[in-house]
């Protein structure tokens, strides 16, 4: 038994020695450690750098960056803009880089992954000369440190900064993980929202192009205001318009792509033309989707082409119709005297009339004379005021009416309203009045004419329809207005839930 145990112990010892030897072979050999020293001997004047090449070993995988007219561009990616912040951070680290000497033996370069073939090259130039050419080892020095040397020298330094991560290389450093578009500025547009003087948005299909909205920031009676070349029945919100411009910053490219055939942008496209205060313009065109259906093709006025995620772009265009002031219908709580709401699909209704009793107290009564809860009425009025109308780009709305709302505003009389003012009959009209002549073969109910007078306002919403971006919308059509206005389904549902309908 003792002999057997001895054999086992010897076997374990041999195995441990083999593991130790293996680790020593895979671990970089360490030379004499010196005090930290500057690796770039001459300070880099960052403003003088006009060219940078970042390359994986001696392969063709590289990022070639050139500074033109004060902006950095990716020369090997169609000249698109580079991310200035990423580049600035890299240059600042290189300018102050320091480390400890680990080896100057050329035989050991492979142990650090820092040969010309295995390292990552960083070459910086100004207009006439080479400023620096460093090689970063593909093997890490501990948790976050890196090995660095000058390309024409064998001296290897260990630094505390993680340059590999700065270069977009995390985890195992391999050629396939090197991304040439690491330095791409993913922002598709570049402008300051405060500098915008006008914007026109249009939609185009195979047969026609339609202006969605056209806004200008003009001086009106000594005050700068947003005005529209298209007349709307609702006031414009300067705050919402500015927020719309800011939302352009959220349009980020997944990747840059080669110029695409014109057909990509002919079948169906969305275009935004932005004019700045200095007269310059920014144009953005969205075309069709890629083969996978995950991204839209997008091009800029500079003829750069990008792939933008569908979710990002749909979210952007979906909110672009929110241009109008809060309470766009101009409902004034204190002036509302009558409310009538009809669910034309479910054939349900609600009616209320406001008046003053003999004690001059405000009372609300139903069509049958029953007194109503004033707090409930205020909730209904508030819910209607909070309905935010959107301008949307859509084809003709093939849907009958669904919801009818009548609001009467005016002065109260010191007497109860006659409940007989409310009628129960529901006449019919053709869809021609709502949708146009081509839909006149279908008949739909119209709002009853309970109220008369100049203070009466009537609003009719279509049945819910799905927009291109997937949202469900109740369309509001305004007589004589070719534009489409939308109340989002969830908002209309919330409003309906506040109303105590009767059959």
How many domain regions?
Answer: 3
Mean pLDDT: 82
Radius of gyration: 35 Å
Q: How many helices?
A: 9
Shape: elongated
Looking at the chains present, what oligomeric state does this protein adopt? Answer: single chain
Number of strands: 30
Low-confidence stretches: 22-35, 413-454
Largest sheet geometry: 10 strands, antiparallel
Question: Which class best fits the helix and strand makeup?
Answer: alpha+beta
End-to-end C-alpha gap = 97 Å
Q: Can you give the helix content as a percent range?
A: 10-25%
Range of strand content = 25-35%
Strand order of the largest sheet: 1-6-10-9-8-7-2-3-4-5
Protein described:
This protein has 503 residues and is of the alpha+beta class. It contains 9 helices and 30 strands. It has helices at residues 2-26, 84-95, 163-166, 238-246, 263-266, 310-318, 374-385, 432-435, 489-497; strands spanning 37-38, 51-56, 62-68, 71-74, 80-81, 98-103, 120-125, 130-141, 145-150, 156-159, 196-205, 209-220, 223-228, 255-257, 268-276, 281-289, 295-300, 305-309, 336-343, 348-356, 362-365, 371-372, 390-392, 401-409, 428-430, 443-445, 456-462, 465-466, 472-476, 484-488. The protein has a 10-stranded antiparallel β-sheet, with no helix packed on it. It has an 8-stranded antiparallel β-sheet with strand order 13-12-11-15-16-17-18-14. A hairpin with a 4-residue loop joins β15 (268-276) and β16 (281-289). The chain is elongated and about 105 Å long.
């Amino acid at each position: 038994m003792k002999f057997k145990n001895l054999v086992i112990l010897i076997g374990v010892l041999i195995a441990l020695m083999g593991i130790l030897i293996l680790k020593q072979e895979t671990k970089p050999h360490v030379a004499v450690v010196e005090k930290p020293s500057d690796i770039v001997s001459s300070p880099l004047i960052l403003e003088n750098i006009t060219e940078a090449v970042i390359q994986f070993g001696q392969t063709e995988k590289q990022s070639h960056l050139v500074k033109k007219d004060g902006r950095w561009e990716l020369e090997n990616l169609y000249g698109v803009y580079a991310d200035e912040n990423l580049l600035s951070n890299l240059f600042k680290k290189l300018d102050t880089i320091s480390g400890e000497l680990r080896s100057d033996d050329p035989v050991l370069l492979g142990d650090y992954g820092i040969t010309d073939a295995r390292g990552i090259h960083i070459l910086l130039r100004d207009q006439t000369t080479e400023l620096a050419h460093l090689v970063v080892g593909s093997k890490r020095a501990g948790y976050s440190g890196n090995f660095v040397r000058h390309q024409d020298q064998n001296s290897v330094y260990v630094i505390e900064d993680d340059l590999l991560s700065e270069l977009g290389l995390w985890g195992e450093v391999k050629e396939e993980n090197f991304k040439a578009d690491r330095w791409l500025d993913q922002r598709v547009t570049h402008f300051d929202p405060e500098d915008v003087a006008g914007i026109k948005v249009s939609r185009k299909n195979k047969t026609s192009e339609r202006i969605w909205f056209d806004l200008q920031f003009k001086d009106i009676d000594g005050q700068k205001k947003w005005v529209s070349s298209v007349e709307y029945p609702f006031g414009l919100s300067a705050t919402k318009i500015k927020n719309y411009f800011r939302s352009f910053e959220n349009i980020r490219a997944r990747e840059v792509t080669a110029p695409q055939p014109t057909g990509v942008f002919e079948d169906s496209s969305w275009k935004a033309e932005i004019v700045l205060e200095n007269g310059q313009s920014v144009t953005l065109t969205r075309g069709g989707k890629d083969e996978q259906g995950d991204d839209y093709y997008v091009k800029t006025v500079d003829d750069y082409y990008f792939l933008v995620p569908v979710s990002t772009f749909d979210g952007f265009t979906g909110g672009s119709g929110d241009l109008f002031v809060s309470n766009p219908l101009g409902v004034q709580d204190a002036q509302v005297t009558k409310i009538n709401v009809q669910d034309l699909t479910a054939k349900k209704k609600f009616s209320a009339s406001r008046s003053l009793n003999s004690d001059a107290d405000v009372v609300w009564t139903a069509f049958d004379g029953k007194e109503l809860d004033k707090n409930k009425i205020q909730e209904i009025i508030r819910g209607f005021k909070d309905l935010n109308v959107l301008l949307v780009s859509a084809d003709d709305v093939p849907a009958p009416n669904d919801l009818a709302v009548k609001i009467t505003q005016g002065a109260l009389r010191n007497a109860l309203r006659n409940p007989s003012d409310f009628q129960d009959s529901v006449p019919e009209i053709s869809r021609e009045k709502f949708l146009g002549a081509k839909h006149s073969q279908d008949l739909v109910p119209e709002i009853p004419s309970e109220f008369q007078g100049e203070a009466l306002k009537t609003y009719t919403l279509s049945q819910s329809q799905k927009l291109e971006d997937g949202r469900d919308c109740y369309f509001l059509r305004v007589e004589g207005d070719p534009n489409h206005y939308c109340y989002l389904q969830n908002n209309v549902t919330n409003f309906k839930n506040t109303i105590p309908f009767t059959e």
